[in-house]
Amino acid sequence: MSGLDPDQAYSESLKPRPGMSLVNWAVRYDVDTARTQVSATVADAFLSRAVYRDGLGCIVIHGEEPADSPARGDVAGEQAFIPLLPEIAGPAVVEPTDERLRTAQDRAFTEPDHPPYRRTRAVVVLYDGHVIAERYAPGYGVATPLLGYSATKSVISALVGILVRQGRLAVEQPAPVAAWSDPSDPRHAITIDQLLRMTSGLALDETQSPFNPVARMLYLERDMAGFAESAGLEAAPGSAWNYTSGNTLIISKIIRDAVGGHAADVLRFAQRELFGPLGMRNVTLEFDATGTPVGSTYMLAPARDWARFGASHGPDGDIEGVGRLVADVIDALRTHS
Prior knowledge:
33% of the residues lie in helices and 15% in strands. The protein is built from 11 helices and 11 strands. A hairpin with a 2-residue loop joins strand 2 and strand 3. Helix 4 crosses helix 8 and helix 4 crosses helix 11. The C terminus is likely disordered.
């Protein structure tokens, strides 16, 4: 996805992460560029395989490859009808003209106490809808897709905001999760509001251990949201805060079902309602094997597209885009809290 050297990607993003020290000595991986896939083992066992699919990024394969695999062409036709905003910079890296911005960039890229996976990959500074300064780490550039990790959760929140605005979701109602439909199930009371606020009460610990439930959800489960939905309660809904990506996977599935039920439906909806209007040109949402976007973690986009998501100017000069979309979520939560 990124075009980075595989060994660089592993050494920067995976090897230094907490918990990996337990297994790094035994990890072996093979990057098959011809078949666009990566196979990995631990102590020559526990084979795992990730496969690249055009327009969908990579997916961890459990058994047979999923049938719900739309190609980029399934949604490309809608691009012609989307009023993209103009470019925010030319093709070259924009060097700052203000020495204070240069100093700030220097500071951002000088982080001796940070582990490699937390070090800065890119900085983009926007002013009045244009890039006025940017810098990239070695091996990265203007076009390099950057993994959003938990910034992807903000994209999911924006999509919820759109559906709230359209009257297709209500955050104060019990979340439409079939596994919780029985009113006698204490999870039946969990709302989208509580999933968004990380107060669902679900027992989905997310620590840095490679053996926690969220790690299992992301790397061992074919149906990630289904696994999260199966968790019991460790606290009454709305009574305690516990940050867990499982909440966001459940919301991701709710979004999927609300817009049509398939990965292609999610792509069309996100492109038409969010990415296109913001001028985000090179976004890749990754999915699990059931067609649910892995909205907790796995969206990739160049730094300029992430900047677009953060602040976008409409043609009338007002701040539009994600600020307005997130405002829909905030207004909905304020109204019903």
